[in-house]
Amino acid sequence: MSKPTFLHKLAQEILKSHSNTLLDLVVILPNKRAKVFLLAELKKSVSDNIFAPNIISIEDFIQDIAGIRSIDSVELLFEFYNVYLSETEKDQQESFESFANWAKTLLQDFNEIDRYLLEPDKILKYLENIKEIEHWAVSVEKRTDLIDNYLLFWKKLPEYYHALYAYLLDKGVGYQGLIYREAVQNLNHFSENNNKQFLFAGFNALNQAEEKIIQHLLALETAKIYWDIDETLLHDTFHDAGLFQRKFKSEWIHYKTHPYEWIVNDFTEAKNIQVIATSKSIGQAKITGSIIEKYAVENNANLQNVAVVLGEENLLLPVLHALPESVTALNITMGFSSKNNPAQLLIAKLFKLHSNALSRNSESYVMYYKDVLDILTHPLIEPYANANALVNKINKNNYTFITHKKLTELQAEPNVLFEMLFRKWNTPSVTVLKNLSQILVQIKAHLSYDNEEEKITNAFVYSVFKVINKMITYFENHPNIDDIKTLQAIYKQVIDVAEVSFEGEPLSGLQIMGVLESRVLDFETVIITSVNEGKFPAGKSTNSFIPYDVKREYGLPTYKEKDAIYTYHFYHLLQRAKNIYLLYNADSEGFDAGEKSRFITQLEVEKQPNHNLTFQYFNPDVPTIAYQPMVVPKTDNVITRLQEIATNGFSPSSLTTYIRNPIQFYLQRVLRISETDEVEENIAVNTLGTIIHGTLEALYKPFIGRLLTTADIESCFQKIDAEVLRQFKEVYKEGEIKKGRNLLAFEVAKRNVFNFLKLEKEALEVGDQVQIIALEQTYERLLEDYRLPVPVLIKGNVDRIELRNGKIRIIDYKTGKVEQKNVTLKDWKGLTEDIKNDKIIQILAYAFMFEQETKGLEMEAGIISFKNLNAGFLPFTFKPEKEANTVINTEIMDAYLEEIVIILQTIFNQDIAFEEKVN
């Protein structure tokens, strides 16, 4: 950078003022990440080898003063629960799960009270009084137990605070606020035993405890502090970026006699600021990639002074995918949330499967098929569990709910991983967690460090492995909390704050970071994403029991102070930068809607003379055609395959498939792509049709070849229930039919068969003579025509053929609703061009196949619709004018075949491609 950075200036100052006492110097920075960059600046500034000063974060420094170890938020929750149980009457104690809901907020308030060195009794008593006032309207004698318990809770807060404070202190551990309070109390002792010099650098907002500690050390002249603030921001009394530093400059006694260092004048210098509005988060990621690509071309791929600051951490993956190939070195100085980590998703699925199985029945341990398949098909499990055969069995046999015993029986070749995944969780929580830990170890054993993709998977697996092991420690130390629901709730809380750490080279290449990670760092080119209200700045969030007015009264930070912190970070990023890109989501509606940040408006309103501020709106390229229909030319191989189909047989349904959508015909008939087996949880319409077809075939089979009697039909009535059940078992395999929608479908099937038989009986009673000729039989006939390249075999399965009152009747059963108009034709022209004629094409094809076996008898072909049974048999009817004809004669058959030849000519014509029909 042409301008010296803050850390460069700091390195120069350290070497100038402490060159002989570097080992006695402690440099305190806002975060740990800045240490690497400061060491790099020191290295650049010296030619010889030297011992570096001790560089630590403010939190580590304050822990050193207090002599207390910090504990994480979940461990703190467990410790607080122990205190809560000891301080609360047995009959008023809550479960850990409901306790955790309010305890997290309360601990946050305890933390703030301690960090700002306030009297806890005063604040907590204030809260109690507020709650009392809220219930003044209810007289004491009318108060319910609920109100009394509620007010008692607020009364007990000081007890909880003091008990927790003493308990943690006794163990030598603490949350941040407790450590800060103890550090202030231990300050004199620390100062007396200290011979080091302290240098604080790059700070902005400080809490009361930090202020007190720093001022104490400044007064003893054992410390120095260097700020990094631009005079434009500091001297503007309305500018939030200087809010805290104006306060320190005017209120600290130290500055009555010492200069305020460092005030710089970099913000007003020449800067190119491009404000880019775009649609959605993904648009910002794409633009970020294109900006970096352009910069890399102009600077010979040197991205040393370029930083991408993400206003939202969930933009990390889209941005990484959008980066150009010219980015060879990259450093991500931000954690990636473990929420969407593939290993975490696997653990979450295991929790879902086992907690559901336990809640159903802990003995038989019934698992839902979707939960089982979710685990077996997970990318971290599928290659190693050897369970493909099991997945196919579940899909093929319609297993909806599977017992633990059945699952182990179905898995022919169990292995260690499979056994661990489905081991019952009716054991203590620690055993469950140890099993999860072992599952992750098993997965890790299959991963390689040589493969780049597996390296990332390893990082994901390891991050969750650490979380699980941490939880094992929690539950071993707290055996009184032992319940799967609680375990799942705690796991969710821990994983919410857990992060995947990426490995990278911090000092070379492109830097990608979050807002807080950018503290004290300076870059020449800065790209900031999500510069929207509610994201940058973060907006109001009131995760506290302490009301706003109480916070104002006692000097606790409110959203006003939080906004000021964001303002400082934003302007600090701009301070020494030359090229700035501010990206924001301009969509004002929808799921991912956004509003331009006030920071952009502020830059516009308070524009500096040397700032070149431009506004652009990037629209995504929207294609003029939303969807391009698929077109497949007919190659020689396709024609060969069509000739093969002609030899083996065109079914009537394949012809109607072509009319409906030629591409569907191509995929199903030419390429022979069939749908994959999936568990049919609710009986599909076509499955119900198959069951009804099968039942009628089984009931009527004994009567083929002879005249039907009413006694025959009576005997069928007795067999309906058993036969429908048998067909269900045969077609629907292991599917559940005793409850839910499937039970209704089962009853519908029985009712349909019953109604059909009833109709049949009524017809026989009025004198119909019926002889069954064939049931569910396959027929075929060769269609030869000089216009076709090859003879075409028409082949299909006919549901029923009967001789009724001296006429041949070909019947096709339909479970859907069909009306007479659907099988009535006025004109042959265009028969094969409209899919609404599909039923006519089908039943006339059956008539063509059977025509030679009619032995001179008249023939009808039609449909019996189970949703229109009262209409009875619906025959094909040719009705060009007023007169209707239902008998299929030679004239009708010739006209029909003429249309079929036309459609077959189209299918075999190599010049006519298969073209998708889009509705």
Structural class: alpha/beta
Instruction: Assign a percent range to the helix content.
Output: 40-55%
C-alpha Rg, in Å? 39 Å
Q: Reading side by side through the largest sheet, how are the strands ordered?
A: 11-16-10-17-18-9-19
Tell me, rounded to a whole number, the average pLDDT. Answer: 88
Give the overall silhouette: elongated
Q: Tally of extended strands?
A: 28
Number of helices: 34
Percent in strands = 5-15%
Largest sheet: 7 strands, parallel
**Residue windows where pLDDT falls under 50 for at least 5 positions:** none
How far the N terminus sits from the C terminus, by CA atoms, comes to 59 Å
What does this protein structure show overall?
The protein has 919 residues and is an alpha/beta fold. The protein is 49% helix and 14% strand. Helix 16 runs antiparallel to helix 17 (369-376). The chain is elongated, with a radius of gyration of 39 Å.
Short description:
The chain contains 34 helices and 28 strands.
Provide keyphrases for this structure.
about 900 residues, alpha/beta, seven-stranded parallel beta sheet, 34 helices
Secondary-structure map:
Blueprint: H1 6-18, E1 25-29, H2 33-45, E2 54-57, H3 58-66, E3 69-70, H4 73-87, H5 96-115, H6 120-134, H7 145-171, E4 173-174, H8 176-185, H9 187-192, E5 197-201, H10 208-219, E6 223-226, E7 229-230, H11 231-235, H12 243-251, H13 254-257, E8 263-264, E9 271-278, H14 280-298, E10 306-310, H15 316-322, E11 330-333, E12 336-337, H16 342-360, E13 366-368, H17 369-376, H18 388-396, E14 401-403, H19 404-410, H20 416-421, H21 429-445, H22 452-477, H23 484-497, E15 499-500, E16 510-514, E17 525-528, H24 548-554, H25 559-575, E18 579-585, H26 598-605, E19 611-618, E20 631-632, H27 636-648, H28 652-660, H29 662-670, H30 685-700, H31 710-732, H32 740-765, E21 770-783, E22 792-804, E23 807-814, E24 824-825, H33 838-850, E25 859-865, E26 873-875, E27 877-878, H34 890-908, E28 914-915
